[in-house]
Amino acid sequence: MTTTENPATGRIVVVGSLNADLTIYTERLPLPGETLHGNGFAVNPGGKSANQAVAAARLGGHVTLIGAVGEDANGAMLLASTAGAGVDVTRVRRTAEPTGVAVISVDAAGENSIIIAAGANGTLAPEHVGAEAFDGAAVVGLCLEVPLETVQAAAQAGHDGGARVLLNLSPYAQIPAALATLTDVLLVNAHEASQFLGGFEMPSPDAPEAEWEPAVERFAGHGLAQVLVTLGSQGSVVLDSRTSTPVVRIAPTKVDAVDTTGAGDAFTGAVAARLAAGDTLVDAARYASVAAAMAATRKGTQTAYPSAAEVADFR
Question: Mind listing the pLDDT tens digit for each residue in 149-200?
Fold first, then answer.
């Protein structure tokens, strides 16, 4: 097993979204129908897939991003940002549709609310996911901000190429059984996990490991042997039906959060980077806990993501 201080070695292919983040900072999030004064505004590169690709690349991963942006200033910004982090963007298409956007409100405690408009992301079709892009890939990273049929095509191509398919089930949607079968690692938060399991009540964050075992069995019944459930400030839990220790709690990394926007993507990108380097899922999750916490101490998304050296220093 590689150590978690070394950069990732296997190639990572991320398929999905690129968004311009329109972020306004305010003391608290508005109530329905309420207007508040903000105290800052920024336009930053974002989108779950672009964020995850940048996070993995900054941690030493060799990353290719497949997606779509518009022929506009936001598209140019996103291409510059991802390429500047070391991501291969030669497979990101330019389209007549405007670049996707996310409208984000962030309160004084760093919590956020987000609304996305797909734009060019909605044009990414299965035929844009060429099988040759996955040759030699160790990990394929997916989320649900692009059409579901495209996600499934990418999962199939990654599976056929021998890669490990990592699916971040966000924003939540029901997925076909075939996509679950193609998924090697499912990454969800507790609410998404409950939805996926048909309303099954997930254990409380501080529940003992034994209370998580029914969830292990239910996920395994859907063909999902390895599941990583994030618990926000309470850390995460690795569920693995294939091992003698099917439930492993991952302790949270305590920091003073400034902006949690994109911290989940930092976590996902870090998991991808460490899996590509040969770490176990448990070790990858422990490393990702640190990377995500560090991201939350800075404003923005991609610009907040730490490098491998910074994570090593923090640890």
Answer: 999 999 999 999 999 999 999 999 999 999 999 999 999 999 999 999 999 9
| Structure tokens belonging to residue 211 | 């209370």
Confirm whether 63 is domain-assigned. Answer: yes
Mean pLDDT over residues 109-117, rounded? 88
Active site includes 240?
no
Q: Is residue 278 part of a domain?
A: yes
Task: Grade residue 9 by pLDDT with cuts at 50, 70 and 90.
Answer: low
Contact 116, 143 (CB under 8 A): no
**244 found inside a domain:** yes
Task: Specify if 201 maps to a domain.
Answer: yes
pLDDT tens digits, 262-309: 899 999 999 999 999 999 999 999 999 999 999 999 988 899 999 999
The CATH number that applies at residue 289 is 3.40.1190.20
In this structure, the strands spanning 137-142 and 88-95 are unpaired
Rounded to 5, what percent of the chain is helix, strand, coil? 35, 25, 40
Count: domains in the chain: 1
What are the residue ranges of helices labelled H in 68-225? 73-84, 148-160, 177-182, 190-196, 213-221
- The residue annotated as part of the active site, out of 265, 279, 283, 313, is 265
